[in-house]
Write a structure and sequence with these properties.
The protein starts with a helix and ends with a helix. Helices cover 35% and strands 17% of the residues. β1, α2 and β2 form a beta-alpha-beta unit. It is globular, with a radius of gyration of 21 Å. It has 431 residues and is α/β, with parallel strands linked by helices. α6 packs parallel to α7 and α7 packs across α16. A 6-stranded parallel beta sheet has the order 3-2-1-4-5-6, with helices on both faces. It has a 4-stranded mixed beta sheet with strand order 8-7-9-10. A two-stranded antiparallel ribbon has the order 11-13. It folds into 3 domains: 153 residues, Rossmann fold; 136 residues, no CATH class; 80 residues, Antifreeze-like/N-acetylneuraminic acid synthase C-terminal domain (Type Iii Antifreeze Protein Isoform Hplc 12). It contains 16 helices and 14 strands.
Length: 431
């Protein structure tokens, strides 16, 4: 509970934490909006493919001219990672190949890394974390995003002696969403294409949230960080409100919908017929606990914690997350405590690319949220040959693939793919 104090003390010493941001999109902009009011934190450099856009983002979030002029704007993330005036590198591009490259450059330069780029984390997080430890720096998930928030809740549950039965987040989901493309995504958000364009909203990025891919990526990141299991047939997205978490997210053997204990799962804010779930958790995160003994179970009841009908399962949840507005927690924790806010430990799962429609040999895949594939979370042992969604972009199919088919590595040409090499290295790591 002393992070703000440590940051203020750093400011008083004249040694504020100096962050470098790679990617000034929505997440990065939300972080930038908070920086002027955080004592002991500065952003010294920002990298973006369009530096002028990054400068405009700083103006849009309220930075004054003096702060903008004191910041260096560049177009090369790897170059930013090597700068002497940067202590912590924030990777927020969303591009897995770029994220892996930038994180590696930062670690080589002795910088801490906050990986907003969950796509990169599920491809190579464990090996990047190991590399960071060897270099004496921190590799961390990004606080404010769901994987780090869930990791914190899981850590709390275990540190207090509870068994973690399930952990995850909420989202808006229907099975038909798996086939949605950027062309028809906005109707599901209640927007017109014109309104979305005026707001600067990227249809492919927002489609990745809708078609289930982003949920798969985030759940695998949580499993990899917390040592939890990925469902053997992929996420089920059960409709569930906050009052039913402990009933639904418990094992089959006691009347729930999980295949066992210790699983990640995303719950839907919609019933399968499209009706809204009562008291949904669309914007939040949760952990389901199991009492380790009769005494603890009795305490659940004595202190008003809602439980399932056995009295042994209960849930804690956070109804909202503020993504980039909370990111400074990770930056300050890495620099001032030398501690990550969640970190990949081993490859418990992967996110397999699944064909959205019939695909023909010679077609070029367009990755997460696009027209060709969506991402399914699977245990690594079941999907060892699957093509990861993070590598299913700008690659060409070697054969015809039917709609609903899970793609495998041999289906595409991945020669000279550095990210693939790191993916295999990460899979071989043991905790």
């Amino acid at each position: 509970m002393n992070l703000a104090r440590l940051a203020a003390e750093a400011a008083d010493r004249g040694t504020p934490v100096r962050a470098g941001l790679i990617g000034a999109g929505k997440f990065g902009s939300m972080f930038l909006s908070q920086v002027p009011t955080i004592a002991g934190l500065e952003v010294t450099a920002i990298a973006d493919l369009q530096p002028s856009r990054a400068r405009a983002s700083c103006q849009a979030v309220g930075w004054d001219d003096n702060r903008i002029e004191a910041t260096t704007f560049v177009d090369d993330g790897a170059a930013l990672a090597k700068r002497d005036d940067v202590d912590v590198v924030i990777e927020a591009t969303g591009n897995p190949r770029a994220g892996i490259k930038h994180a590696g450059a930062a670690i080589d330069a002795g910088k801490h890394v906050v990986m907003v780029n969950v796509e990169a984390d599920v491809l190579a997080g464990p090996i990047l974390a190991e590399k960071a430890r060897s270099a004496g720096v921190v590799y961390s998930m990004a606080y404010g995003d769901q994987p780090a928030l869930v990791s914190e809740m899981v850590d709390w549950a275990r540190a207090t002696g509870f068994r973690v039965t399930a952990a995850g987040k909420g989202t808006k989901y229907l099975p038909a969403y798996h086939c949605v493309t950027p062309d028809d995504v906005w109707q599901h958000y209640g927007l017109t294409p014109e309104d979305a364009k005026a707001a600067g909203m990227n249809p492919q990025m927002f489609n990745s949230f809708l078609d289930g891919t982003k949920s798969a990526i985030e759940m695998v990141a949580i499993a990899n960080a917390c040592g939890l299991n990925v469902p053997s047939e992929g996420l089920a997205f059960p409709p569930c409100g906050v009052d039913d978490l402990a009933h639904i997210l418990r094992p089959h053997e006691v009347g729930g919908q999980l295949e066992g204990r210790g699983f990640v799962e995303t719950i839907s804010s919609l019933e399968r017929d499209g009706r809204p779930v009562f008291r949904d958790l669309r914007w939040g995160v949760y952990v389901v606990l199991e009492a380790p003994n009769d005494y603890a179970a009795a305490c659940f009841n004595q202190y008003g914690l809602p439980t399932d009908d056995t009295g042994r399962f209960a849930a804690m949840y956070k109804p909202f997350h503020l993504i980039g507005l909370e990111l400074s927690v990770s930056v300050l924790s890495a620099a001032l405590r030398n501690e990550p806010t969640g970190q990949a430990q081993s490859m418990r799962g992967t996110v397999a690319a699944v064909a959205k429609r019939d695909l023909k040999a010679g077609e070029r895949l367009d990755g997460e949220g696009g027209y060709t594939v969506w991402g399914q979370a699977l245990p690594i042992d079941i999907a060892r040959t699957a093509l990861p969604i993070g590598l299913a972009d700008h690659v060409t199919l070697r054969r015809d693939v039917g709609a609903g088919t899970r793609l495998v590595l041999e289906d595409v040409d991945l020669r000279d793919e550095a990210a693939l090499d790191l993916y295999f290295k990460a899979r071989r790591l043991k905790t």
